[in-house]
Amino acid sequence: MKNIKVLIAFVAGLIVYAFLIHNSSCTRENSIPTIEPPDFTYGDETVKNSEGWTFDKTHSSVLWETDYLGVSALLTGRFNTFTAKVEFDEDNPETSSFSGFVVLSTVNTGEPGRDQGCLLNTFGVADISDTARLTSKQIAFDGKGGYVATAELDFHGVKKDVTMQLNYTEQTHIDATNPYTVAGLSGQFEFNAKSDFAIVSTSIADRVVIKLNLQFKKPD
Fold first, then answer.
1. Domain CATH code at residue 90
2. How many whole angstroms separate alpha carbon 6 and alpha carbon 207?
3. Same-domain pairing of 21 and 80
4. pLDDT for res 128
5. Could you give the CA distance from residue 204 to residue 64 in angstroms, rounded to a whole number?
6. Are the C-beta atoms of 218 and 180 separated by less than 8 Å?
7. Which domain holds residue 13?
8. Which pLDDT tens digits describe the chain residue by residue (220 residues)?
9. 3-state secondary structure string across 3-46
10. Which of 41, 69, 135, 192 is least crowded, fewest Cβ atoms below 10 Å from its Cβ?
């Protein structure tokens, strides 16, 4: 009987010891600390045509990409003729705006036969319009250091809103013979060319991605 009591005491001691070790070494669910998101700060720079900033097309681009229909290859291109206007306030996106357009017949995929052939037929520039226009309607902080914008895309005779990610590149001074300052906006959005903009094509996919890289400059 004495041996049984000793054994029971020993087992009880092990259970208590294990319980203490568990509570001291394991993190319980209710003790997991709350992870706060980082604080993103926005500066107070402005880039506005009304304040003397001009569009620097030489260092800008409008790129696009879409899948070849039914295959894995990616069709990419750019437009040679385009422009942009901006009234951008880094810390007050609600008062900011941008607009621009591309000339569709200046499409460039690196294959002249394709650019002047099937792509222009797809765009329908002879019957509708040789330009596609983008005009902002609302810009807001995205909480991640950038912005989210709603803009109207006017393409192929159809106008629809698109949502785009917008990022600002802060001002940099260029110490040239005639010193100037540059700043940039980059953005990306996508749209459904066939189902939303009445594009008829057996070559491209419905989803098209547009990437904007826009630089502006101002003399010092």
1. 2.40.128.110
2. 76
3. no
4. 84
5. 12
6. yes
7. 2-31
8. 444 444 444 444 545 444 444 455 545 555 566 665 566 789 999 999 999 999 999 999 999 999 987 777 898 999 999 999 999 999 999 999 999 999 999 999 888 878 776 777 777 777 788 999 999 999 999 999 999 999 999 999 999 999 999 999 999 999 999 999 999 999 999 999 999 999 888 888 999 999 999 999 999 9
9. HHHHHHHHHHHHHHHHHHHHHHHCCCHHHCCCCCCCCCCCCCCE
10. 41
Q: Is residue 40 part of a domain?
A: no
Looking at the structure of the chain, the number of domains it has is 2
> Which residue type occupies 130?
D
Same domain, 58 and 17: no
Residues 59, 11 share a domain: no
Tracing tokens 């005779």 back to the chain, one arrives at 157
Please answer whether residues 122 and 204 qualify as being in contact, where contact means their C-beta atoms are separated by less than 8 angstroms: yes
Rounded CA separation 69/97 (Å): 35
The verdict on residue 147 lying in a domain is yes
> How many residues in total does the chain contain?
220
Closest among 149, 153, 7 to 15, alpha carbons compared: 7
Q: Evaluate whether 186 touches 198 at the Cβ level (below 8 Å).
A: no
The residue to which tokens 């926005």 are assigned: 42
Structural domain contains residue 41: no
